[in-house]
Amino acid sequence: MLNRSAQAGGAAYRSRGLQWHHVAMAPTARFLTLADVAEVLNTSSAQVYALVRRGDLPAIKIGGRGQWRVESSELEKYIERMYDETKTFVSAHPFVESDTGRGDEA
Fold this sequence. Notes:
The protein is an alpha+beta fold. It has three helices and five strands.
């Protein structure tokens, strides 16, 4: 997990040698753990593991214990794909005022 010790004005965060910038939110490390990816996506490690195992988010297994790593560029591609898919969904399902309060936000 990322340790969020915020610097002046919350402009940057440091964790295990990774530098997070408030504007770009891009890590300087090439590979991320599933926990790091979960922190970026604001979800659980179990959800990230499911994304990886389904093939939705490309990752590699390394080392004797088979630890998963996600390349930061693959994470950025995944995020862009999700924006595109969401845009398509929103276009196909226009918002109607009666939709507020359905509880589909999860």
